[in-house]
Amino acid sequence: MPLTQAQALDMLRSDDLIGIGMEADLVRRRLHPGNVVSYQVDRN
User: Fold this and answer.
1) Contact 11, 23 (CB under 8 A)
2) 34 with 43: CB under 8 angstroms?
3) What is the DSSP string of 8-36?
4) Distance between CA 1 and CA 4 in Å, rounded?
5) Looking at per-residue confidence, does 41 or 3 come out higher?
6) Mean pLDDT confidence for 5-22
7) What pLDDT, on a 0 to 100 scale, did the predictor assign at position 39?
8) What is the C-alpha to C-alpha distance for residues 36 and 20, in angstroms, rounded to an integer?
9) What pLDDT score was predicted for residue 44?
10) How is residue 3 annotated by DSSP?
11) How remote is the C-alpha of 9 from its chain's centroid?
12) d(CA 35, CA 44)
């Protein structure tokens, strides 16, 4: 379920990085239900 505009603005104004990360993880789990997660860091 997508974020509403109000929810997106609340996240942008928030300093709760843990809460934002938890919300992002819920989206990740919905889109990619497996238990393997990888990240790529581009340092260019």
Assistant:
1) yes
2) no
3) HHHHHH---HHHHHHHHHHHHHHH--SS-
4) 9
5) 41
6) 94
7) 84
8) 20
9) 81
10) P
11) 14
12) 29
Query: How far, CA to CA in Å, does 7 sit from each of 13, 29, 40, 42?
Result: 10, 19, 27, 28
pLDDT of residue 37: 87
* Residue with the two structure tokens 């497996």: 34
In the predicted structure, residue 1 carries a pLDDT above the cut 80: no
Q: How confident is the model at residue 9 (pLDDT cuts 50, 70, 90)?
A: very high
State the Cα–Cα distance between residues 5 and 43, nearest whole angstrom: 31
Q: For residue 20, how many other CB atoms are within 10 A of its CB?
A: 14
